């Protein structure tokens, strides 16, 4: 239901507002946030993955490929765009690579065929699953006391 913002008396009755008992120490609220991380399997090896709903596309940093997939240059596909933007500035794309990511699940593993943009100057060391594949596969993150990740109709606790 949309809020009615035309009411000028909206904020006058703050005693009616519900107070949450859990509050962070003043000036320390930022320490409670964490990235949504999981361990996935690629080519029969475990790798860390970050699910980032603020990233418009999925990426793999060059350093990650250098460390884990030494023959990555043979699998490189061209990209139309060369420069990508991030919160830390411009990033240079070398190309894309296709990887099959398997998310382990107690009710059966989930297989995601992904095309990752390879960035030469990414500041992260892990794979990053952006909103492109989150929307495609129906991945939702519910941030509560126990973080829940749903993929399609399957649900897994973080």
Automatic annotation (TrEMBL):
It comes from the Eukaryota. InterPro entries: Aspartic_peptidase_AS (IPR001969), Peptidase_aspartic_dom_sf (IPR021109). Keywords: Aspartyl protease, Hydrolase, Protease. PROSITE patterns: ASP_PROTEASE. GO terms for biological process: proteolysis. GO terms for molecular function: aspartic-type endopeptidase activity. This is Uncharacterized protein.
């Amino acid at each position: 239901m949309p809020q009615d913002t035309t009411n000028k008396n909206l904020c006058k009755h703050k005693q009616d507002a519900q107070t949450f008992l859990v509050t962070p120490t003043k000036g320390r609220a930022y320490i409670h946030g964490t990235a949504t991380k999981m361990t996935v399997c690629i080519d029969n090896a475990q790798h860390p993955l970050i699910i980032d709903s603020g990233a418009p596309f999925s990426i793999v940093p060059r350093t990650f490929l250098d460390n884990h997939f030494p023959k990555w240059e043979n699998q490189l596909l061209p990209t139309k765009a060369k420069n990508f933007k991030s919160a830390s500035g411009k990033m240079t794309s070398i190309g894309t690579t296709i990887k099959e990511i398997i998310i382990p699940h107690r009710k059966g593993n989930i297989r995601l065929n992904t095309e990752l943009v390879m960035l030469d100057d990414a500041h992260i060391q892990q794979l990053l699953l952006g909103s492109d594949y989150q929307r495609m596969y129906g991945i939702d993150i519910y941030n509560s006391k126990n973080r829940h990740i749903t993929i399609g109709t399957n649900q897994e606790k973080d």
